[in-house]
Structures are given as structure tokens and as C-alpha cells.
Amino acid sequence: MASNHTNLQSTGPDGKQLLVQHTTTDSPILPAANLEHLQRIDPSGELVRWVVVQTEEEAKYRRQENTRVNRYIFTERIAGIALGALVAIVGLGLATYLAISGHDAVAGVIGGATLLGIVSVLVTRRKDAAPESEKSSTSTKKKK
């Protein structure tokens, strides 16, 4: 989980100091100090309970979203493999038919290099090609 901390301190000519601290995080959990501060604002504890309930709901949503994205990625990959197999089977069937029909050169081209190229593109995907969201999150993490 990425977080960004900013601290700014300034001292004026009269000796007065100004200190500003700011933290941004994508974590659904508030730091304990923030919860303690909320408890001082609302001694009944309703505000803290509300924040905890909202945090639980946010965490549940994030887990569901993560599961959904993983399911779509899995489905996409299986579909790619299935389509690659279908293209290979149809191509080999066509090449066999053409070879039996006396078109050996055409059958060799379809069954050879062309079919091999199509299947390799559909089945073996580039391993180094990361989705755009992964590239941006990786670059953000490196800047810390």
C-alpha cells in the first residue's frame, strides 16, 4: 500500500514556528493516532465506530473487486488458449484437406509457417508486457 508523507516547517523572524504534516495513503485503515483524535472529538465513540464500519465495508469491496479482476484475467487467458487451439485445429484440418486434394504447396504454407505464427501469437503472450495500471503503480512505488 502506497503512502505519501509531507512535512513542512517554517520559522518566522519573530521566532514563531509553523509545522504542517500531511499523510496520504491508499490503505482503508486509519492510523491509531487518527482514531484516538476522533475519540477526543466525539467521546461517545459513535464517530470511531462509524469509521471502523466504513473501513470494514471498504476492505470488503476491495477484496470483491480484486476477486472480480482476477476472474476476468483468468477468463481472458483461458479464452485466448481456447481460440488458439481452435485456430490450430481448423488450420491443420484445412491443410490436411488441401494436401489430400493435391494442393501440396498451399497445404504446406497453411500448415507450416502461417499456422505456427498465428498459434504462437494467440497462445504464447509476451511475458514482459505488463498492463498499464501495473506499470504506473510500479513507477509510483519506486519514487518513494
What can you see in these coordinates?
By secondary structure, this protein is an alpha+beta fold. The protein has one domain (3-126). Helices cover 67% and strands 12% of the residues. The protein has a two-stranded antiparallel ribbon with strand order 1-2. A hairpin with a 5-residue loop joins strand 1 (3-11) and strand 2. Helix 2 packs antiparallel against helix 3. It is elongated and about 95 Å long.
If you average the pLDDT, what whole number results? 80
Structural class: alpha+beta
Indicate the proportion of strand residues.
5-15%
Which ranges are low-confidence, i.e. pLDDT below 50, for 5 or more consecutive residues? 136-144
Q: Which sequence of SSEs, written as H and E, runs from N to C?
A: EEHHHH
Q: How is the topology of this model organized?
A:
Elements: E1 3-11, E2 17-25, H1 32-41, H2 46-100, H3 104-123, H4 132-142
Helix pairs in contact: 2-3
Task: Give a short overview.
With 144 residues, the chain is of the alpha+beta class.
